[in-house]
Amino acid sequence: MPAAASARARLLRFFMRHAIKTRMHAKPDLGRIRRSMELVARYAPDRPRGVAMRKGVLAGVPVECSAPSGHVTDRRILYLHGGGFVSGSPRTHRGIAGRIARGADARVAVIDYRLAPEHPFPAALEDAAAAYRALLEQGAPPSRLALVGDSAGGNLVFALLLKLKEEGAPMPAAAVAMSPFVDLTGGGESLRTNAALDPLLHVAGLPAVLDAYAPKRDLKNPLLSPLFGDLKGLPPCLIQCGSDEILCDDAVRMQRALQRAGVDAELEVWSEMPHVWQAFARLIPEGRTALERICRFLRERMDDGVRAGHAA
User: Of 23-32, 81-90, 275-284, 287-296, which range is least confident?
Assistant: First the structure.
């Protein structure tokens, strides 16, 4: 991983710290965060070239599908977006979904799962499971199917894998999690050691998110905190996180737990990168490089012999 952040990444960190962390995440207004994400996506859209997008429905769940333009691919990716379980949508993640579709040569379905607090746990997970089953019913072979998610979506990726295992359902070929939030009990040491370093997330804002998503729930439930689940039998996984994130230890501990369970699990800790920096691939080189690595990982595990792609 790069030893130091680029000049563009440092500017992004500065903006995040002063415009978002101190103003929005310290004392979060969940409705305001949700509206702000949608407004940015609406008025500053990120639509990668060479990608076709269409809307649809999977098992009653609204979805946006991105695919490489000009040819048909049978690779399928179910993308679970981040946003602290309370915000985010296919619109806010069109850029990252499109780049993965193009780079992994796959059709990427971003589901518009139900959000908390209107729809607390397990609504989002149920929507993800229904969408995954629908892809299988449509004929997507598990060897050509992968799960990808960021932040809260990374949590849902691992929770969904545990749910599929519990049900005896076919596992996908691979899973990717960017800055995953996998321990809702707050047991990661980086919540304290990186509290001042993290340019985006504020520790003080996490209780509001947990109260919205999992009110009065046992946060050690593996479907809420996948770190505590039985991880044996899960597919190959790639986890990326930034060294300064308050969630860095979630990623580190998850990869170690996966390896102890015999799962092929790779971890990349990127120096000084903010939470889900891959979403800013249009702005910073580290975002493009990280997505290229993700796409290569997915291509290698979703069967062989398909053309290479690019995530830039």
Answer: 23-32
Q: pLDDT digits over 28-72, tens only?
A: 788 888 888 888 888 767 889 999 999 999 999 999 999 999 888
Q: Which of 245, 268, 272, 286 is catalytic?
A: 245
Does a structural domain hold residue 237?
Answer: yes
Q: Exactly one of 25, 81, 93, 275 is catalytic; name it.
A: 275
Whether omega for the bond prior to residue 215 falls within 30 degrees of 0, making it cis, is no
The domain that holds 112 is classified in CATH as: 3.40.50.1820
In a domain, 308, yes or no: no
Extract the tokens encoding 55. 């809307």
- In the predicted structure, residue 226 carries a pLDDT above the cut 70: yes
Position 267 in a domain: yes
Domains held by the chain: number: 1
List strand residue ranges (DSSP E) for the chain, in order: 51-58, 61-68, 76-80, 107-111, 145-150, 174-178, 237-242, 265-270
Residue 225 confidence class, pLDDT cut points 50, 70, 90:
very high
Active site (annotated) includes residue 266: no
Q: Which of 66, 87, 151, 225 is catalytic?
A: 151
Look up the domain containing 143 and give its range: 7-301
Q: Could you tell me what percent of the chain has a pLDDT over 70? A: 96
Reading the block at residue 82, the tokens are 């981040």
Show the tokens assigned to 92: 């806010």
Q: Is the separation of the CB atoms in 135 and 76 below 8 Å?
A: yes
Q: Would you say residue 82 lies in a domain?
A: yes
Q: Identify whether 245 is a catalytic site residue.
A: yes
